[in-house]
Design goal:
This protein is an all-alpha fold. The chain contains 4 helices and no strands.
Length: 96
């Protein structure tokens, strides 16, 4: 980072470069957060699938987990979609 004279205002180019640097930093932060969310959703889909197996059906799992049936179905669908796409759901599960 260049040292600036406190009496001198940054040039238009410097202001643009600083704005672009901040924008790229924010985009990077959002990208990293999205990756964490996707990983967490996969882990949750695996856990919900296991819960449905343990509780016996979606309704029982919904009651046991205090989670709406629609949410249970959404995560079951994510789990099925991940397996259909060839995602390593088991690998994520093993990293817990």
């Amino acid at each position: 980072m260049a040292v600036q004279n406190p009496d001198k205002t940054p040039s238009r180019k410097q202001r643009l470069q600083e704005r672009q640097r901040r924008q790229l930093a924010v985009v990077d932060t959002v990208d990293k957060a999205e990756a964490k969310v996707r990983k967490a959703e996969v882990e949750l889909a695996v856990a919900v699938t296991e819960a449905v197996q343990v509780f016996g059906d979606e309704q029982s799992a919904s009651e046991g987990l205090d989670m709406p049936v629609e949410t249970i179905r959404r995560f079951l669908g994510m789990g099925r979609d991940g397996v259909a796409k060839g995602d390593d759901v088991a690998e994520v599960d093993g990293q817990s």
